[in-house]
Design brief:
By secondary structure, the protein is of the alpha/beta class. It has a domain at 132-272: Ribonuclease H-like superfamily/Ribonuclease H (Nucleotidyltransferase, domain 5), CATH 3.30.420. The protein is 38% helix and 15% strand. It is built from 11 helices and 8 strands. The strands form 2 sheets. It has a 5-stranded mixed beta sheet, sandwiched between helices. A 3-stranded antiparallel beta sheet has the order 1-2-3, with no helix packed on it. Helix 4 crosses helix 5.
């Protein structure tokens, strides 16, 4: 059963101690009871140091080990407040904003925390898109004089897939790709969309291989229609516009190419949950995924592979 704070008052009342935060992490990490990461034993007892001692092999493990929170020097209460604040911001979270809210002495700490949390915004094994899906590419980056469409340079190429639910927008997926090759674009579709779906694209030849992978290909060549590209594929153009506006408004467009993928993950997390009525449920989802994501050292964050 999903267990999350109903509102800010409930959140503040529940997580007043480190013990309460650890118990919540335990509940989400081991919903069916303790499991030793070394021997898979199911019996353990808590030590005075806040560790769990496996009765079978004697291994001691912290509830934060192997999670986003591993090796943190800050209280879990502060991490919980950060996650509540991040999931409460409908327009996104900036490092400067997080630093101010938590009273962190270092902008670098706030920036690092946000990047750790962005890595937890992608659920391992998440369901792929299904049904009618629009797929197109867009460039993300600063203004470049004379660069239009696929002729742009020094910008990041992002491919976007949007699931259509009648006239409404469904879930989305995004990825930074190197080029307009069939390997990159069809590879993205294969990773993000269930076979059997109908993929609408423009006339780019890179998508011609889609039927061989089990997709129905609805290829729209603009010169054969009176409508504009945005009218022929309104869903994906709408999402691309919202993405660019979000990057410019929340992050002032200062997102490097090497970190862009993680900002896309945050945008996707927020967009796919935009109709959620309960902020507490978004907090719950983020914590739930944070205990399943491997820790990322600071050196790897600043120089991602």
């Amino acid at each position: 059963m999903e267990d999350y704070p109903a509102n800010l008052m409930d959140f503040e009342a529940r997580f007043t101690t480190e013990k309460a935060c650890r118990e919540y992490l335990f509940q989400l990490r081991w919903p069916d009871g303790f499991r030793c990461p070394r021997c898979d034993g199911d019996k353990a007892w808590a030590t005075d140091r806040g560790l769990w001692h496996c009765a079978a092999c004697g291994h001691q493990v912290s509830v934060t080990a192997g999670t986003v929170f591993q090796d943190t020097r800050k209280p879990l209460q502060m991490w919980f407040r950060a996650m509540w604040w991040v999931t409460s911001q409908k327009t996104g979270a900036s490092a400067a904003g997080l630093q101010q809210v938590l009273g962190l002495g270092s902008y670098q700490t706030a920036w690092t925390w946000l990047h750790k949390l962005r890595r937890a915004m992608v659920r391992p094994g998440r369901d792929r898109l299904w049904g009618a899906v629009e797929v197109d590419e867009t460039y993300v980056g600063g203004h470049e004089t004379g660069a239009i469409g696929r002729g742009a340079k020094d910008k990041s190429l992002v491919v976007i897939a949007v699931e259509k639910d009648g006239r409404r927008l469904g879930r989305i997926r995004m990825r930074v790709v190197d080029d307009f090759t069939s390997a990159d674009l069809c590879g993205f579709v294969r990773d993000c969309v269930e076979p059997g779906s109908t993929i609408r694209t423009d006339g780019l030849n890179s998508y011609l291989a889609l039927p061989s992978y089990g997709y129905k290909h609805d290829r729209v060549i603009q010169k054969d229609h009176e409508e504009t590209a945005s009218e022929l594929m309104p869903a994906v153009h709408r999402v691309a516009s919202l993405l660019k506006r979000w990057l410019l408004g929340t992050h002032q467009g200062r997102v490097s190419h090497e970190h862009l993928g993680y900002y896309l993950d945050e945008f996707t997390f927020r967009f796919n949950r935009r109709n959620s009525r309960y902020r507490g449920k978004l907090f719950y989802r983020l914590v739930q995924q944070a205990v399943t994501v491997e820790p990322t050292p600071y050196k790897q964050i600043i120089r991602p592979t």
